[in-house]
Amino acid sequence: MGLFDRFRRRPTGGPAAVRARLEGAMAKRRLRGWNPPLENINALVASGGPRLLARSRELVVTKGYAANACEAFAANLVGDGIKPSSLIGDGDLRERVQRLWLAWTDEADADGLTDFYGLQAMVAREMFVAGECFVRLRPRRAEDGLLVPLQLQLLQSEMLPFEKTETAANGNRIRCGIEFDAIGRRVAYHFRRRHPGDSTDQGAVIPETVRVPAADVLHVYRPIDAGQIRGLPHIAPAMVRLFLLDQYDDAELDRKKTAAMFAGFITKTAPEEPMMGEADADLDGAAIASLEPGTMQVLLPGEDVKFSSPADVGSSYEAFQYRTLLSVAASLGLPYHLVTGDVRQANYSSLRAELVEFRRRIGQLQHGVIVHQLCRAVWLRWLETAVLSGALDADLAEVRPVQWIPPRWDWVDPLKDIQAQVLAMEAGITSRRKVVEATGYDIEEVDRENAADAARATGLGLRYRTSPGETQGARATPATRPEPADGAGDSTDDGAAATDPATEQE
Questions:
Q1: Exposed, middle or buried: residue 386 (CB in 10 Å: 0-12, 13-18, 19+)?
Q2: Are 134 and 158 in contact (CB under 8 A)?
Q3: Which of 60, 111, 108 is nearest to 81 (CA)?
Q4: Alpha helix locations (H) across 293-429?
Q5: pTM (predicted TM-score)
Q6: Domain limits, the chain
Q7: CA distance 414 to 138
């Protein structure tokens, strides 16, 4: 075998290729100082959780961009509510279940401040700020007068102490306030009786924590690592930049304010002589001269006026702010215009492309976190309580099937989307149920309302028609049906419109 053959048959995936793929593991000059500890996420949360949580809450309360991002996150995640649509086959039973649920949502909040969908919004905000929220299922007595004797109580992350890591008296392990049995199942939560930061809640001395069974607690959080037991604030990746950017803006604003206070400075060779327009000296003995509009002042010999000309921020300020806020928006996983409200550099295509990716991420959180950890668990407990209390006469297994409908997405140009949905239905690509549910409504409720509207219009002798040739969306115009003459029918145009189902609804 010649030298050429040996080189030709040499394998290409040798040690050099492996080293290139593992460059991030090298410890040479460039990466010698990069030695992060090999710690589990639970250890990091346990050690830094309280401080991270305190800083996160301060940012959202005091910093404008953080507060706006929090509201945008909650509004897009749950909107006006992720609502159930029962899949019960029996129409009458399905109607009774839906009506009972709708009536109960007004009584769901144990604090009486909002309804069930308002609680969803509060949970979404807590996920942004604290990374997690605890929902305690509170059974109520029959004499409380509730339609279904069940209410929900929200508990903040601070109510479950991060530092409570020990072995319980029954041999179970308690990790960051959560009690696990021998096979790793959650069996209880050890909540504080009072919020550690609420100085207004002062009462008798009682045990610091209380054990609540895990069956009565919903822990809503987004697990980002396998085995993670506590949530991380959604704002965590952007916290440092938001804090430093706000300090920079405050310093720049204060510098400009201070510089604007000085109109000019007077210098003179004889300090003992009075200045032009000199007023009484202040407490420190420094005299202040004032200027009025239109003043023509003659200076004395030796006096000179130098007007203040403070340095401007320069042309780089706007670009620096834009790039920094872009980094903040990327760290939060939110579109730039939702964080800042700035749409100067946006157009229809860029907004649409940005929103498509953002809503794909929001859809993950809706179905994987809010629906799975909160909505489904509440629905099952509510049904069980309603059946056991006699508020609902039904077989529990029969009434469980349900699907959850997230709020509709509002697009920049809704007309194009509606036209695309109509074409998709006509082509059989999607169903009318899917299209209606995408708007955030239950198709059966919409059909009942349409039927009621049609019956009412027929009873009143009304006709709804679309103008001929109108292709940019139906614009219904009510018109009273004319009474035909004896032996005469409708006119040709009206008759044609009456036979076209696409242009008339009775």
A1: buried
A2: no
A3: 108
A4: 316-332, 336-340, 348-365, 376-389, 396-399, 414-426
A5: 0.75
A6: 38-152+218-258+314-406, 413-459, 461-506
A7: 42
The β-bridge partners of 150 are 139
Cα–Cα distance between 351 and 363 in angstroms, integer?
18
Query: What pLDDT digit, counting tens, does each position of 217-244 carry?
Result: 999 999 999 999 999 999 999 999 999 9
pLDDT class for 288, splitting at 50, 70, 90? low
Residue at token pair 């702010």: 321
In sequence order, the 6+-apart residues with CB closer than 8 A to the CB of 223 are 231
Asked if residues 268 and 300 have their Cβ atoms less than 8 Å apart, the reply is yes
81: left (phi over 0), alpha (psi -120 to 50) or beta: left
For the chain, count helices (H), then strands (E): 16, 15
Tokens 């460059």: give the residue: 23
> Could you give the CA distance from residue 152 to residue 127 in angstroms, rounded to a whole number?
17
Rounded to the nearest 10 degrees, the angle between the axes of helix 116-129 and helix 64-77 is: 130
pLDDT digits (tens, 9 = 90+) for 436-479: 877 777 788 888 888 888 888 888 888 776 444 444 444 444 44
The DSSP secondary-structure symbol of 170 reads: T
Residue 127: is it exposed, middle or buried by C-beta count within 10 angstroms (0-12/13-18/19+)?
Answer: buried
The residues, any chain, with a CB within 8 Å of residue 245's CB and separated by 6 or more, are 65, 321, 324, 325, 328
Q: Which residue has 């004797």 as its token pair?
A: 149
